[in-house]
């Protein structure tokens, strides 16, 4: 088993229409406004940016995200990731009752040296850290969508 390989899935039920959710998710430069753990997003061009995140644990991760798919009709946003993490992430936005379900899938390898060194003993903590970050993101996006 490769202890530096992670596969995540998060489901965010949101009380807003799919178009509003998709619109917020397709603007990563606004993520720091509503997602506390997304510390900085710097656009490099129309499809690429550098993102720095930090959750509960005392380390930041910086990576480049390059858009590989943006399909509003299908509700899909997908990026390739490189830097402290390498892999891909995808949002899939669908109608769910009177609101939206935003599904986040991510498959990555961790490149950041301290996280690689503690890959085996730290794995449960790193996964819990990710869950906390995603929970805060869902709450932040729900509040953001209600305010706009």
CATH architecture annotation:
2-Layer Sandwich
Overall spatial form: globular
CATH topology: Alpha-D-Glucose-1,6-Bisphosphate, Chain A, domain 4
In the predicted model, the low-confidence regions spanning at least 5 consecutive residues are none
Radius of gyration: 15 Å
Q: Describe the biggest sheet?
A: 7 strands, antiparallel
The number of domains:
1
Structure report:
This protein is an alpha+beta fold and 148 residues long. The protein has a single domain, classed as START domain (Alpha-D-Glucose-1,6-Bisphosphate, Chain A, domain 4). It has helices at residues 18-25, 31-34, 113-117, 119-147; strands at 5-14, 38-43, 48-53, 61-71, 76-83, 85-96, 99-110. A 7-stranded antiparallel beta sheet has the order 1-7-6-5-4-3-2.
Concise summary:
This protein has four helices and seven strands. With 148 residues, it is an alpha+beta fold. It has a seven-stranded antiparallel beta sheet with strand order 1-7-6-5-4-3-2.
List keywords for this structure.
148 residues; alpha+beta; Alpha-D-Glucose-1,6-Bisphosphate, Chain A, domain 4
List the SSEs and their pairings.
Blueprint: E1 5-14, H1 18-25, H2 31-34, E2 38-43, E3 48-53, E4 61-71, E5 76-83, E6 85-96, E7 99-110, H3 113-117, H4 119-147
Antiparallel strand pairs: 1-7, 2-3, 3-4, 4-5, 5-6, 6-7
